[in-house]
Structure formats: structure tokens, C-alpha cells
Prior knowledge:
Layout: E1 10-12, H1 13-16, E2 20-23, E3 26-37, E4 42-50, E5 58-61, E6 66-70, E7 75-78, H2 82-86, H3 99-109, E8 124-125, E9 131-132, H4 139-147, E10 157-159, H5 160-163, E11 167-170, E12 173-184, E13 190-196, E14 205-208, E15 213-217, E16 222-225, H6 229-233, H7 246-256
Parallel strand pairs: 2-7, 11-16
Antiparallel strand pairs: 1-12, 2-3, 3-4, 3-10, 4-5, 6-7, 8-9, 11-12, 12-13, 13-14, 15-16
Amino acid sequence: MKQLKQYKMKQSINSLLGYTIKGTDGEIGKVEEFFFDDQTSTIRYVVVKTGGWFSEKKVLISPEAFQKLDYESKKLSVNLTQEKIKNSPDIETDKPVSEQQEELIRGYYSWPGDYGNGMYGHMGLGMWGYPLVEVRETEKEMIQRKTKKQANENPHLRSTQEVTGYDIHTTDGNIGKVDDFIIDDVSWKIHFLIVETGNWFSGKKVIISPRWIKDVKWQEQIVTINHSKEEVKNSPEYDSSQPINDSYEHSLNDYYEK
């Protein structure tokens, strides 16, 4: 993936919704939502609603295709043509994306099939409460996995739209709901979840790191972190009108990891 920017910025997912996706020969459509890997907290796809230049549909575009993110014009440039998008495999983005569908679309665009080079992350506890293990496949196992017909959904591909609204539980009670996500525009990794505390802390918004997630109950839509309500309440205040700089991020990490 060619990265034209020489520095990274941290932005909220919601602030990127509605951005225009610009292909090499014209506009493709608008950003509608994002899919992320719940083991690595990395954005896997942007869901794009195509414009009127052909029959309207939704397509998945990987960060592999991203070239330039222009905040002033609210455009994200990709190294794809309108024709390439038009002929892409149809994916029903309102339904769970299966591993077979994912392999089909990644093959069509020639994006790497083993996302993350066969690794789900560092050894230890996963970003969303999963114990992580290093994946070491033999050549035979890799061939078997790739040729296996997989009808079930990818269990680790999540929609940011779906997770928005999940309850956030501490070690001693509920503190609010997921309101947004903070990502950086180089690695496309989720660095923080923005939590709307509502009546719990007089409407104060706080941010938490996926590294502090102890467990996620997907069916019950509950995210549990390994800190108390009091710790969250007294954490460095989050100001949504200000960008998250290194100083703030360091103070937040120092506070929770002391």
C-alpha cells in the first residue's frame, strides 16, 4: 500500500463517515461504515456506498488500496478505477461477511489473503478480550484452509456501526455506552473507544483503550474493562474538540498503568 502522508493523525470514525472515496478516474462513492478485526483492533475494510455513475451498491475497500486522506476536502483517494469497483464481487454488507466472501474479494483486488501475515497479534491477551496465540501453519494446512468451503461468517470481523451503543462495564458496574472510535490514519488501528457516560458521570465522555478490555459478550452487547468506575471517573478528561496528542495519550496510559 502506497502511503503518501509522512505523519499520522488520530481521528474519530464518525468524523470520517460521509467522506468521498476518490478513485484514479473519478469519484466512487461515500464512506458509510468500517469493519475491524476484533483480535487486532485494525480496520479491515471501509464500506462504500457507490454513487450514481452505475447501479448503486455497497462495496468493501481495504486499507491496502488507500493512498491519501485529505481532511480539508473530506476525500479518501484509493488506487482503484471506477470500472474495477463496478465489476467487483457483490457483497451483502448488511449481513455478516463470510470467510469465503472475504477470500473472493481479496483475490479479485489482489490484496494479501493472510491479513496480518498470519499473526493475530502479540502473544498475550487480545484487544477485545481474546487470548492470542501465534498461528503457525504448515503448507498443507494452509492449502486445506484456503480450499475449504467456508459458509459461516468471519467470527472476528466486526462493524463499528454494530458495536456503537454497546454497554461498557467496569469491574464494579456500568459506566456508559460506546459512542465512537479513535483510529490513526497510517496503521488504521483503533487506539481508543469513546464512551458516552450519560447519567453516570453527568454526560462526561471518556476514552478507553482496547488493551484494557477484559471480556466482550457479543450477544449481550457488553464490553467489560479491567478498571473500576472510580478509576474511569477520575481519568484524564477527554475533550472532543481537541485532537488527541502524544502528551494526552501518555498521561492517559500513565494513569491507567500506574
